[in-house]
Amino acid sequence: MALTTSETEDAARDLLRMRGAERPRLEQIRTYLTGDPTLTWLPQGVPQEVRALAAISRVNIVKLVADSTVQSMYVDGYTSAAADKRIWEIWQRNRMDRKQIGVHRAASVYGAGYVTVLPGKPVPVMRPHSPRYLTAAYGDDDDWPVYGLLHRGGPKWRLFDDQHVHELETSSDDGNRLVHKGKFEHEQDVCPIVRYLATEDLDDPVVGEIEPLFQLQDQINITTFLLLVAQHYGAHKQRYILGWMAKSEEQKLKVAASTLLTIPRKPGDVEVGEFAATDLSGYIESREATLRHLAVISQTPANELLGQLVQLSAEALDAVNASNQRKITERQTVIGEAHEQALGQAGSLLGIPVDPFAEIAWKDTERRKLPTVVAALAVLAEKLGVPERELWQMVPGVSQSQTRRWEAAAGHDATPGAGRETAHGDPGGTDTDTDTAAPDTPPTPAGAPGRGPRVLENAA
């Protein structure tokens, strides 16, 4: 049953309360991601010089952890038994090759990201959203929300339900009240919001990679601050003279700059000495130890955080990266299901039945020696009888569109895996992205390389 105007405004008010409760946590994560956490540990009334040292002591490591994960996740294709190219056309025309990075980053950083699926021309419109701007309320079915509230900027909001998209605006009298302005049908029987989670947890709410690392990031910042203070005030030797005072600032500077010092006093009346320089190695070792702890907890290769390059064998490198690869595999499994859900829902708007056996293909981002891999694949073909064409897609750095061109050049039909379309083109190698459009970006200016007019219209 369609919501009335008052019911729509009531639902929006409830979601605003949910958003208000969640917002402080999300904004705190954002401050750590941008490298600007509050210096709560700095005492009040410290000199401005010390406060400046504290400001530059923020070493943003947690962003590197998030980047390491996101940069290992790129959707490279879509496999479906239906072999319907229109599904992959939806991905291409929405420029999801690029926009997938944003939704992957939101899921990794905050624990969740969202994609809305709405009717459009010539294909449905898919738009990624951060949880800082979209709040969704779920019931018994955790695949589709009951309602979703999206802040579109300024006073404009959207409320999604299982029948309509409602346009709302902030009331001029009460900034916490949203006023219904209109609605349109989204032509689907579910609330058209797909949630992308960082992982799956049956007990506790899912959190991203940043929040569990707050304390370790604070430790790194504090240790760096103490290192800078020690370096600034004590890393150089300081000399002293007991029993004599300079009569003026000019005389003090002259004594400080002189290589030969003469003082009109008896030798026993004056004592000259110096303080030893502060040893900084303890601070540096402490920071490196914290970085190693952070690497273990976040399942990030320690060499990426420490910047230490050592000569390691292939087996040793595999051991170093094993934990990180397990994390990436889990993340791809969870997020891949969300991509399949979003593409299946978008395809249903074109009358394409949802394929429960469809799969997302991920790009292989591991750096491996080509001769070694090819030799291993040759053994599979020779010893186990695996068809050679099925091994082509396992060659490092070779995209699925390239394997299609190999098949065409070899004179084979592409029946095995015929349902697989790639982010780089159709089976003949044509780049289907060269004449497509993003739903939320203006047409590419004339003369832009490799791009033609790109227009996607939303039903709104």
TrEMBL record:
Biased segments, Low complexity type: 429-439
Chain positions covered by the region annotation Disordered: 397-460
Pfam families per record: SPP1_portal (PF05133)
Protein name: Phage portal protein
Origin species: Streptomyces calidiresistens
Organism ancestry: Bacteria, Bacillati, Actinomycetota, Actinomycetes, Kitasatosporales
